[in-house]
Amino acid sequence: MISLVFGLLAAVVALSFLSLLKTYRHIPPREVKRMARAGDKTAEVMYKPIAYGASLPVVLWLVIGIALSTSLVLLTNALPLWIAIVVVALIIWAGFAWIPSTDLSNIGVWLAKRLASPLAWLLERLNPKLARIANFIHSHQPISIHTGLYQKSDLAELLQAQKDQPDNRIAAGEIELLTNALSFGDKVVADVLIPKRVVDVVNVTDAIGPVLTDELHKSGHSRFPVYEDKHDNIVGVLFLKDLIMNKQTGIVRGVMKSNLNYVHEDFTLYQTLEAFIKTKHHLFLVVNQFEEFVGIITIEDVIEQMTGKVIMDEFDTYDDLRAVAATAAKKEHAKHSKPTLEPTPEAQEVVK
Q: I want to staple 74 with a disulfide (CB 3.0 to 4.6 A). Which of 3, 146, 317, 350 is the partner?
């Protein structure tokens, strides 16, 4: 009878320390340290044994091994063989299959809190020898080589997992910003440019006045390429704010900025952002491999792709500037097109 009682008691000790081991594995030391510094009393107590590092699991495994061996010997002597085998099998299943596979439990935290001081006392006296044992075990473990190379998709999945964590302390907006930044460098100018066919351009000889100012303001843009003779011949950029502040009459040539900057449609958005920063310009003309003007890109377009947020400047009055420009282009095309039974391929392309 005594052997049975002490055998079951040893089994309880073994299972308790297995639960304790699992608890410490599920709580990162840095997290416990942070919580302790924040004033969490439970974390303050639990951090005492955690501070001894690798010596803690060595002690826990020694206690588990001694208690489990003692339990097996005593139960085998106290019970009939077949009952002892069943009990031993249940203990082994509970200790090495069920407990390690369950989530962090209140029982494990309660045990960690109650046994923290005795463990810290024991570790304080055994740490020098236990540290040698821990180093020996670590040096003879199989070598696991990790190149440290991850794909961007791996990091994106990690950020999404962090966002879904119940105890996540990173703002959702910051996670979204980081996720967008990961894919930012993979995009090229051709992916986000405003196509030439929907770009609002101004003639270099247009007269400055309320009519032009009102027309440009309604477009929803604040910067406009200026052409001479034909639309592909861009000679400058007109800023709506310069037009509004101008108190004199004249033509667009006298108000526009004549310095132009170009980017290739194959440039990455990261390269384009660097160009915006270096030149301190807010609008680039986009050209293709044949040096043909194919559209424009603004610094707002680039930042929107990086942040995932629509940027509005002081002259923007519409939520989707490309939609405004595209709608205006369709209306203009429809106004000048002759009615036909079937639209021409060119008309179909503009409507798209």
A: 3
